[in-house]
Design goal:
The protein is of the alpha+beta class. The chain has one domain. Helix content is 28%, strand content 36%. The protein has two helices and three strands; from the N terminus they run E-E-H-E-H. A hairpin with a 2-residue loop joins strand 1 (5-14) and strand 2 (17-26). The longest helix has 17 residues, at 49-65. The protein is flat and about 40 Å long. The chain starts with a strand and ends in an 11-residue tail after the last helix.
Length: 76
């Protein structure tokens, strides 16, 4: 039997700067272990990978627009 995966959108704050990303979890994962992330501010369980990616993208865009995004823009 194949185990179902879920996705969690995670928001992290470090030194007043923010970023977010998605993590994949399975039914057998220990959530306390998976979410033992330094600076974690929020963790939203999402129904699909696509939903988690949309949440993460929205959060990161908000951080960029308010100047609190941790990572700068990359110029080529």
């Amino acid at each position: 039997m194949k185990k179902k995966n879920s996705y969690i959108a995670v928001q992290v704050t470090e030194n007043g700067k923010n970023y977010s990303y998605a993590i994949k979890v399975s039914e057998s994962d220990n959530l306390l272990s998976k979410l033992a992330i330094k600076g974690i501010a929020a963790a939203n369980l999402c129904g699909s990978r696509k939903e988690a990616e949309e949440v993460v993208t929205a959060w990161n865009e908000c951080f960029k627009s308010n100047g609190s995004y941790m990572f700068g823009e990359v110029f080529c």
